[in-house]
Amino acid sequence: MKADRVKVGIKKEAPSGAHASLGARVKSEIIAWFWVILVFLLINGTLGQARVIPSGSMENTLLVGDHLIMSRIGYDAGVPFTDWHVPLWRNPHRQQIIIFKPPYAPTQSDLIKRVIGLPGEDIDLHDGAVWINGKKLQENYTTGLTEPAPAGQSPAGYEDIRFPYRVPENCYFAMGDNRENSYDSRFWGCVPRSYILGTPVTIYMSVDAPDDAWSGGMGERFLAYGEALLHPSRVRWKRLFEVFP
C-alpha cells in the first residue's frame, strides 16, 4: 500500500512540472518577440524606412512603382506610427534628393523632391532654367522646361511664389525633376528643415503597374504585386539596387 501511495504521488507531480515548463517557454517566446519588435521600431524610427513612388514628378530619375529604402540617419528620429519626431544634425546639400512632410499639409503622405536652393540663396527661374545668386544651375536630370508656377495655383492660405525668391533660414527650395509635372516649392515655398525626414539610399524593387496601384488602397497594391509574380516582366529588373549619392 505504501508503494502504491508513492506511485500516485509521483503521477500527481508530473503534470505540475509540464505546466511549469510550458509556462517558461511561453514567457521566453514573449520576451524574444518583445525584443524583436523593439529593435524593429528602433530601426524604423531612426535608421531607415521603405517608400514607394506614387507619381511621375521625379521622372526619369524615379519612376512610378519604384520602391525605395530611405535613410533617416542624421536627419530625423521619430516614433513609428506617430507624428512625434526630432530633426537631427545633418543638412541636405544642393541637388540631393530628400523625403519630407508636405509643408502645406503635414499629415498627408510624404513627398520626394530634389534640393535646389539652400538657406539664404536667391532663386530665379527664367529661360527654362534655374538661376542661383545670378548663376545658371547646370542640371542634367530634368524633364521639361523649368518655369514658375501658374498664378493662382498655390494651396489655400498661401500666396503665389514670386521670383527672384530668397530662401529663408532653415529652409530649402525643392523641385521635382519632371519640371512640367511636379507640385513643388514653386507652388508653396520652401521646405522647413524640421520637415525633412531623410534621403533615398537604393531601389529595392520596381514594378510597372498603373499609377492608382500605389496611390490607392492596399487592394490595388496587392493586385500589382500579384501581377508581378505572375508576369515577372512587370518588374524593372535593371533598376534594382540602383543607389543614390
**CATH topology annotation of the largest domain:** Umud Fragment, subunit A
What percentage of the residues does DSSP assign to strands (E)? 15-25%
**What strand line-up does the widest sheet have?**
1-2-13-5-6-11-12
Compute the separation of the termini in Å: 84 Å
Q: What is the helical fraction, as a range of percent? A: 25-40%
Structural class: alpha+beta
What is the number of domains? 2
Number of helices: 4
Strand and helix order = HEEEEEEEEEEEHEEHH
What is the CATH class designation of the largest domain?
Mainly Beta
Question: Largest beta sheet, briefly?
Answer: 7 strands, antiparallel
In the predicted model, the low-confidence regions spanning at least 5 consecutive residues are 1-14
Mean pLDDT: 86
The Rg value, from CA coordinates, equals: 26 Å
Question: What order do the helices and strands come in, and which of them pair?
Answer:
Blueprint: H1 2-46, E1 48-52, E2 66-71, E3 76-78, E4 85-87, E5 97-100, E6 111-117, E7 122-126, E8 129-132, E9 135-136, E10 165-166, E11 171-175, H2 185-188, E12 191-192, E13 196-206, H3 212-215, H4 218-230
Antiparallel strand pairs: 1-2, 2-13, 3-4, 5-6, 5-13, 6-11, 7-8, 7-10, 8-9, 11-12
